[in-house]
Amino acid sequence: MVMEGILETASLLCIDLSQVDLDSIRLPPGEDFGIKSDDEDMNEEYPLEFDMGFGNIIVVDNLPVVPKEKFEKLEGVVRKIYGQIGVIKEDGFWMPVDPATQKTLGQCFIEYNTPQEAELAREKTHNYKLDKSHVFAINMFNDIEKFLKVPDEWAPPETKPYTPGENLQQWLTDEKARDQFVIRSGSDTEVLWNDARHLKPDPVYKRAFWTESFVQWSPLGTYLATVHRQGTAVWGGATTFKQLMRYAHSQVKLIDFSPGERFLVTYSSHEPSNPRDTHRVVLNIFDVKTGKVMRDFKGNADEFVVGGTGGVTGVSWPVFRWGGGKDDKYFARIGKNVISVYETETFTLIDKKSIKVENIMDFSWSPTDPILALFVPELGGGNQPARVSLVQIPAKEEMRQKNLFSVSDCQMYWQSNGDYLAVKVDRYTKTKKSTYTGFELFRIKERDIPIEVLELENKNDKIIAFAWEPKGHRFAVIHGDSPKPDVSFYSMRTTHNTGRVSKLTTLKGKQANALYWSPAGRYIILAGLKGFNGQLEFYNVDELETMGVAEHFSATDIEWDPTGRYVATSVTSVHEMENGFNIWSFNGKLLYRILKDHFFQFLWRPRPPSFLSPEKEEEIFKNLKKYSKKYEAEDQDVSLLLSEQDREKRRRLKDEWDSCVNDWKKWHEADRSERQSLRDGEASDEEEEYEAKEVEVEELLDVSEEVLAFEE
Amino acid sequence: MRPILMKGHERPLTFLKYNRDGDLLFSCAKDHTPTVWFADNGERLGTYRGHNGAVWCCDVSRNSMLLITGSADQTAKLWNVQTGSQLFSFNFDSPARAVDFSVGDKLAVITTDPFMGLPSAIHVKRIAQDPSEQTGESVLTIKGPQGRINRAVWGPLNKTIISSGEDAVVRIWDSETGKLLKESDKETGHKKTVTSLSKSADGSHFLTGSLDKSAKLWDIRSLTLIKTYVTERPVNAVAMSPLLDHVVLGGGQDASAVTTTDHRAGKFEAKFFDKILQEEIGGVKGHFGPINALAFNPDVFQAEVKMDMSGCITSTQITSISRFKTPNRYMVLLIFFPLFLFTDFLSRYQFFPPFSPF
Fold first, then answer.
1. Residue B202 in contact with partner chain A when CB distance is under 8 A
2. Contacts of B106 in chain A (CB under 8 A)
3. Rounded CA gap, A374 and A99, in Å?
4. A281 close to A272: Cβ distance less than 8 angstroms
5. Strands of B86-91's sheet in order across
6. Where would I find the WD repeats (chain B) (predicted)?
7. For the CA atoms of chain B, what is the radius of gyration?
8. Where do the domains of chain B lie, and which CATH numbers do they carry?
9. Which of A284, A391, A419, A559 could form a disulfide with A372 if both were Cys (CB 3.0 to 4.6 A apart)?
10. What is the pLDDT of residues B196-241, one digit of tens each?
């Protein structure tokens, strides 16, 4: 209410306002006369979140009904059971007593310090058998309301009318066939088109505080996942990004989509209440489309530590590795001496049991087929050799096995089509003081899976990086010593024999420590990150020639776009300066550069695989000239337009500037006389107009007359 | 292009000023002793001894007779340029920061830092024709805003004073009444401390450099924002070419945050921008520390190197400052740029070849 209004009303009612003690006025309870309290305002803007609530209280039912005398004994028993699980709050134990009979009611309430402890207690003691007739039933106190609301009679669920969903693949139908990417800088998350023709990004959607930790595309690009304290959400849609589904998982830390994006795995770890205990780990597997929890896994962190090598508090992510290609049929995790393979029909173990593999260290799936590659290290001081084996799922049959001697470590690299598997084997030398590296190359698709051994020319070279050509038969290796290692390219075929590996070339002394193949193959970036400050060499492996050399100073990340046309290099906030990203063409031409402070993430939106058959693709490739004409013409138009716009902009800026300068000149002229007087009449401030004159001055210095004798 | 290294200061340099004729260069540093150099060959002409703290700023009168310096020893001093003798000392209760002579050299503006509970302030002093009649009385004192004022200069016809500093706002004050006339907009203005301010040769516009990694060009009368130059590092120093439509920005990471791995990481290049198009056109390497000060030689006709190339017969000079890693080696890097190199700039992204003056 405005003061004037109050004054008016007061004068109408003949009240002298100065006599009124405003603080003594009490409004009738429940009535606010339409005046909003300041406090309520606050409440509306910021709804308070009671994160604690009653979530830390559990209700234990089916306790024995005892008279008062035995009350304390029962309390002792119950406290003992529940005190083991967590710390019961002081006054956190209440066993109600029936006032009529002076007996307990067979139930009690227990309050823990944290909801996590309460949750754990419920899990652990539900259906706990105290004795034959007393089987505990545990409920969360918070659920009481839920139970109260259960109607007495069952009503059939309503069938909702069908509403057609949006086209989630809309972005693939972009007329200019552009790709999207998401960036995160400061508090903003932005999705943009890469408009390489116009040499700039084109905004799609921007939102501040979209995610609380990071964002992630689903593997086929349909969804963008954001991570929040309460859980994960996925976003997508035809025109803009709307929320499609939420997956509740409190304090989720890590997420992982299955390759066919049917399922989403979320992970969280919780501080134990007792510092001696290990962290508790919760994993949920959701169905992406329906949001239903398909399976959850809970346990101590050390149960999820892979191969016994990881730390106690952390697990190696992803815990579950998906196999069987894009069908999302199987997922597996490694445990102590076992591999547990689950299938997604029922979300249970195949054959209801894990595969026993003593001392298993590592495993990996073929990217396309349900084949597991396992690595078991040496045992018994070398009596039992180390072993790499391929196992077919779901039959669990061993397809191929290779024993390896004096092995220190093994790394497995699958080619993206699942055609080849390269196993990098580090072996001890005879003295056991140093190691050297060799490769075992498996040809998965050939009969009996032949294995070939490859050793580098200089056996002692360290392997810095290894990468398969996507969909191809070649691979690249960086080997040798920093700061000038060599890069070698190999092919799984020779010109005459498709069954033999051959070296294509070795590039000597490159400043590189990472390899980035184009997703379409053929081109590769030899990158020198970290210590090399962002050296980039764009290399054509078909022609074996360097296409371009460039540098993105202190670049931290490199990512090819899904089509292999462009490359993004970015400097993320691990560095203080020069945060931002560069977009390059595949051959190393810098297209544009965007600087953003506090730059966290750059991710290209993935594309689903093409529906074109290989034959069709081949045909397009053959007639590329015909197809490309149209695009070349478009490119030409755009570049003409751009240079025209550029010229126009420059002209405009120039004109604006000229008008400014004219104004200034006028002012300067107008002020001239005044300025002159400020300088005590000193003639001009345009001192430039002086000229140098040569002036000859003759001065008579001295005259003396002397009579000289004239001699004849 | 012929760099001259001028060695003499023992602490980081803070400010550079050419006299009107462009034959003398005055340098201030944290080592208490302002120094004057011959601008054409880099020889040291003399020093001005008497300050007892870092010297932040200086200005020289139009006739090159009088020098004023502002120092952290809570004084601003007037000096005889020729003899190096101290003529007068203005005493304050807090460190003096910026100094600037008015048109006609009859007034000087001096700013003082916030200190021991005192707010920052702008003082206007009358400068007597005869030094023996000089008094320390202020004509006007303006209580400054929050935070340090890093730079204050006179507006056209001495009617206004333009100030800017730590609070990132550029302000125009009435120099008669001390009233605040204009303030730069929070939205379009700088986001972080303004470190430097440089007027154009005719005093019609000025350039501000800020730690928000940008420099902005303003109209001196209306305080309208005309141009913004965006760079990749905090800007410590700015300068405008008196001859061509170029601006130079210098800066770099804070000396304490400099990584030891690579001098490129600190971004210590002086960057040239096209004044009109706001595009970067080149850079000068050769510094191993942040650039603290920049100045153009105002006298473009007193050319040191006469070139007869592509029709250009003049050269211009740019001076920038470098702080070297080796202890007690803080020096002025005097660089002569023949004009034909500037025309090269105009073909875009044509950078100077890196050179090593050592």
1. yes
2. 678
3. 66
4. no
5. B55-60, B66-71, B75-80, B86-91
6. 6-47, 48-89, 142-183, 187-228
7. 19
8. 2-348 (2.130.10.10)
9. A391
10. 999 988 889 999 999 888 999 999 999 999 999 988 778 888 888 8
Q: Give per-residue pLDDT as tens, A4-44.
A: 777 777 777 777 767 766 667 666 666 666 665 555 444 44
- Token readout for A589 is 């031409």
> How far, in Å, CA of A657 to CA of A663, rounded?
10
Read off the DSSP letter of residue A142.
G
Distance from C-alpha of A60 to C-alpha of A125, rounded to nearest angstrom: 9
Determine whether the interchain pair B158/A674 forms a contact, defined as Cβ–Cβ distance below 8 Å. Answer: no
- What CA–CA distance (Å, rounded) separates B294 from B271? 11
- ipTM of the prediction greater than 0.90, yes or no: no
Query: Residue A47: what residue type?
Result: P
What's the first-to-final CA gap in chain B, in angstroms? Answer: 14
Condensed to tens digits (0 to 9), the pLDDT of residues A500-551 reads: 888 899 999 888 999 999 998 899 999 998 778 888 999 999 999 999 999 8
Instruction: Output B35-41 pairs: Cβ under 8 A, ≥24 positions apart.
Output: B35/B8, B35/B9, B36/B67, B36/B81, B37/B6, B37/B8, B37/B332, B39/B297, B39/B317, B39/B334, B40/B302, B40/B304, B41/B4
* Assigned token pair, A427: 């072996």
pLDDT at residue A42, rounded to an integer: 46
B218 beta partners: B206, B225
> Which residues in A lie closer than 8 A to residue B253 (C-beta atoms)?
576-577
Least confident stretch, A43-52, A328-337, A557-566: A43-52
B348 in contact with A, Cβ within 8 Å: no
| A206–chain B nearest CA distance, Å | 20
Structural element, H or E, at residue B170 = strand B170-174
Q: Tell me the residue type at A287.
A: D
From the list A571, A581, A583, A488, the residue with the least C-alpha distance to A530 is A571
Range in A138-152, A666-680, B66-80 with the lowest mean pLDDT: A138-152
Closest partner residue to B104 (CB to CB) among A577, A657, A680 is A680
Q: Which pLDDT tens digit goes with each residue over A410-422?
A: 889 999 988 999 9
Whose CA is closest to A685, among B204, B184, B239? B204
Residue range A371-389, pLDDT digits in tens:
999 998 887 776 788 889 9
d(CA A265, CA A247) in angstroms, rounded, equals: 10
Q: How many Cβ pairs closer than 8 A exist between chain A and B?
A: 53
- What does the DSSP 8-state code read for residue B105? S
Q: Assess contact for B76 and B56: CB atoms under 8 A.
A: no
A110, A111, A115, A116: CA torsion to nearest 10:
-60
pLDDT at A683: 60
Q: Which fold has domain A57-149?
A: Alpha-Beta Plaits (3.30.70)
Max avg pLDDT among A57-71, B64-78, B321-335: B64-78
User: How far, rounded to the nearest angstrom, does the alpha carbon of residue A123 sit from its chain's CA centroid?
Assistant: 32
Q: Which of A285, A279, A290, A245 is nearest to A267 (CA)?
A: A285
Query: Residue B348 pLDDT > 50, yes or no?
Result: no
CATH 2.40.10.480 for domain A167-204+511-628, yes or no, is yes
Q: Does A674 touch chain B (CB under 8 A)?
A: yes
Segment A37-84, tens digit of pLDDT: 555 444 444 444 445 567 788 888 888 888 888 888 888 888 888 888
What type of residue is B267? K
**Burial label, A424 (beta-carbon count in 10 A; 0-12, 13-18, 19+):** middle
CB A349 within 8 A of CB A320: no
- More confident: B358 or A559: A559
| pLDDT top residue among A409 and B95 | B95
Where in chain A are the domains?
Answer: 57-149, 167-204+511-628, 211-356
Touching B: A residues 579-598, CB under 8 Å = 595
